Amino acid sequence: MSLRERLQVALKDAMKAKEAERLSTLRLINAAIKDREIAGRGETTDQEVGDPEILAIMGKMVKQRQESARAYEEGGRLELAEKELNEIRVIEEFLPRQLGAEEVEAAIRAAIAESGAASIRDMGRVMAVLKGKYTGQMDFGAVGPKVKDLLG
């Protein structure tokens, strides 16, 4: 079952169970996917967004909500921070398991070997390999500096 189908099933289940917060978050995910499809209409004839793109969209949504929750907590708005954290939990149900620190380092070393990277100039190739294999499983913003350290 594709990720899009899993989202639709979860949306219907949330409607039937009258889970308002979960339903709201699932609708936000669908809206983000639809926005990406609309943005891509002029680029290609294939308008369907695939699972890797959906994972990237949801990863970005989680990151946005983490930043918002942090800002709300710093501002003393704990009820809003809790709402953001609840949305993160719903989104993460559809994301693959996040890799641990050792697994990330092993994946980086494997990507360096696979791409034949020898210097910092090859960082783009290493990141492309990682994004191809591990989309949604690691934070690429945090991975970048680790790749630089291993190549530098």
Describe the 3D structure:
The longest helix has 24 residues, at 51-74. Helix 2 (20-40) packs across helix 4 (78-92), helix 3 packs antiparallel against helix 4 and helix 5 (101-115) crosses helix 6. The protein is mostly helical. It has 2 domains: 3-92, Uncharacterised protein YqeY/AIM41, N-terminal domain (Hypothetical Protein Yqey, Chain: A, domain1); 101-151, Arc Repressor Mutant, subunit A (Orthogonal Bundle), CATH 1.10.10. It contains 7 helices and no strands.
Question: Would you spell out the secondary-structure blueprint of this structure?
Answer:
Elements: H1 3-16, H2 20-40, H3 51-74, H4 78-92, H5 101-115, H6 123-134, H7 140-151
